[in-house]
Design brief:
Elements (H helix, E strand, L loop, with lengths): L12 H14 L7 E2 H8 L6 H11 L6 E2 L1 H15 L26 H13 L36 H19 L2 H4 L6 H5 L3 E6 L5 H9 L17 E6 L4 E4 H5 L13 H5 L2 E6 L8 E4 L8 H4 L5 H11 L2 E6 L8 H8 L8 E5 L7 H18 L8 E3 L8 H4 L2 H19 L1 H33 L6 H10 L1 H12 L9 H8 L12 H21 L6
Parallel strand pairs: 3-7, 3-8, 4-6, 8-9, 9-10
Antiparallel strand pairs: 1-2, 4-7, 5-6
């Protein structure tokens, strides 16, 4: 199984230099991004039809970010050249028999005069902002540290992600801060949370092949990988792209502003000592990040012998990840109480969960059918959803599978299942922007419900005497209070958080110190969900639609 996505946008060095010069011409504000408005002006010089340019933009901006970087711009120019040569433009045209590196430059009518005009502007004193080989740092990175960023001009937003950052800082973050959302549900978001690559987390009991699975996808070892029949991975390992091969300790990773792991500091030094980052240069890691987890233990060891909140950490990663893979092997189908607690901590992220029945070559076809049935029965008792979860069957390792080779049916099944899983993984970067919007809307709704709950509890507190008794009564009857909030504001019951978790957190707070209802803030979030996010998506859709 070939795991690396097919590289696109490759071209000869001579063409790369020309495309970079063209990119600088097309990028009107020099921020390293060709927006829809920039593209409509520049691509018009190709004299292609609107329908052809619509298809070219859709393929080049496959991640639906709303802009083209240099790589995507190069892809667009190659597609323009192929369209001018009479090729049909499809998503597979650059992966087919076309010699990508020898595609001729497209014909752009009037480009020379535009380039001369741009050069005149540069020489008369206006600096060429994007002339260096270093990528420009988006101005949105400064919004999270600058006090003046509370009111960001719309012109500063050049992508969907930028728009989400702006809405978060101006509308959602004030609500979260006012009602201490970060203490109850999730830490405040940072710039790196928005810019992070898609993440895939692997969960399972020990020796189900989690580390081997990552190694199999990468087709090589990564720093800190230990494989064996015993519980070998004793820490959380984030496998991500980096300039060289090295392992970075957890305390160092948690304080790096450009990485989305700052929120893990809330789990303390005991956890950070069991957390590390494994960096290495790899084309697949340029697209996504993997999270390898310690095997879930059985018995009391899971709860009493871990020095940190294991299920809390899993829940934190689950909220950040785009895909969660639960690994089983045919000889470990039982789901212990500890594993059940871990799966329960994934609540609210059911759409991200996929199940992998690994090491399936260890049983024959008849046994595999029975094992599959037993696994579905076990999962049915834990995953409280009527829908059937997607299960991939295979043997994700690099060893020659003799048993499968002797059984053509098994070999064909494994190959097709592996291809399906690989397709699911490679689709992640393309769906990353849609996933971010989905998670942002989910967070906004959770923050709104949290504000309703906290302001309701505050309203139920007496103004003078008996505050301690009133607080205890509210905490004891928290489920009933949730019901009152739900009925008063007509909220879906399924969107409410865990009563037990809130009860535990509220015990360390004085409810009387919480904020009263702030209708303006909540109305601002409603407007954001109802009008501003749809408008943002409309502004950065395909410019030829």
């Amino acid at each position: 199984m070939e795991a690396s996505p097919i590289p696109i946008g490759s071209s000869s060095k001579e063409h790369q230099k020309i495309y970079k010069d063209w990119f600088n011409i097309a990028d009107s504000d020099g921020d390293g991004r060709v927006t829809g408005n920039d593209a409509t002006k520049f691509f018009a010089m190709s004299k292609l039809s609107r329908q052809e340019l619509k298809q070219i933009w859709a393929i080049a901006d496959s991640k639906r970010q709303g802009f083209l970087g240099l790589t995507e711009f190069t892809v667009a120019m190659q597609l323009v050249s192929l369209a001018q040569a009479g090729h049909e433009i499809t998503s597979d045209v650059l992966k087919s028999s076309v010699d990508v590196e020898n595609i001729s430059l497209p014909l752009m009518e009037g480009l020379d005069s535009l380039a001369a005009k741009k050069k005149d502007l540069t020489t008369t004193g206006e600096p060429e902002m994007n002339g260096s080989s270093q990528p420009q740092v988006p101005t949105s990175a400064k919004w999270f540290t600058s006090k003046s960023a509370r009111k960001t001009p719309p012109s500063a937003v050049t992508s969907i992600v930028d728009g989400l950052k702006r809405l978060y800082i101006e509308k959602l973050k004030p609500l979260e801060v006012a009602y201490r959302f970060n203490d109850f549900v999730s830490p405040l978001l940072t710039n790196s949370d928005f810019d992070a690559k898609p993440m895939v987390m692997l969960l399972g009991q020990y020796s189900t092949g989690k580390t081997t699975f990552i190694k199999h996808l990468l087709q090589c070892d990564y720093p800190g990988a230990h494989i064996g029949p015993e519980p070998t991975t004793d820490r959380f390992v984030v496998v991500m792209s980096g300039p060289d091969e090295r392992s970075i300790p957890g305390n160092t990773i948690a304080v790096q502003a450009d990485l989305p792991f700052g929120g893990l500091t809330t789990f303390g030094g005991a956890f950070l000592s069991k957390f590390e980052c494994s960096q290495m240069p790899h084309p697949l890691l340029d697209q996504m990040t993997f999270v390898d987890t310690p095997g879930v233990l059985s018995g009391e060891k899971q709860r009493t012998q871990r020095s940190y909140d294991f299920t809390g950490v899993i829940s934190w990663f689950a909220a950040k990840c785009d895909l969660i893979l639960l690994l089983f092997d045919p000889h470990k189908l039982d789901i212990s109480d500890e594993f059940k607690r871990v799966i329960s901590s994934l609540r609210g992220n059911d759409d991200k969960i996929r199940v992998v029945l690994n090491k399936a070559h260890q049983v024959d076809t008849q046994q595999l059918m029975r094992v599959y049935g037993a696994l579905m029965w076990s999962l049915g008792k834990v995953l409280n959803t009527p829908e059937v979860v997607r299960v991939y069957i295979g043997s994700f390792n690099d060893k020659l599978i003799k048993e499968a080779a002797n059984d053509p049916l098994g070999q064909d099944l494994f190959e097709r299942e592996q291809d399906d899983l690989l397709k699911d993984l490679i689709d992640l970067p393309r769906k990353a922007c849609d996933r971010q919007i989905n998670e942002f809307v989910k967070r906004a709704r959770a923050a709104k419900i949290h504000a309703y709950i906290i302001s309701h509890l505050k309203k139920e507190m007496p103004s003078m005497m008996g505050k301690a008794k009133a607080q205890q009564r509210l905490i004891d009857n928290l489920e009933d209070e949730f019901g009152k909030v739900q009925r008063e504001f007509h909220l879906p019951a399924g969107d409410f958080p865990s009563v037990e978790h809130y009860r535990e957190v509220l015990n360390s707070y004085s409810i009387d110190k919480f904020e009263k209802m702030k209708p303006k803030m909540i109305q601002g979030v409603d407007d954001m969900l109802g009008y501003e996010i749809p408008e943002l998506l409309k502004n950065f859709r395909n410019p030829y639609e």
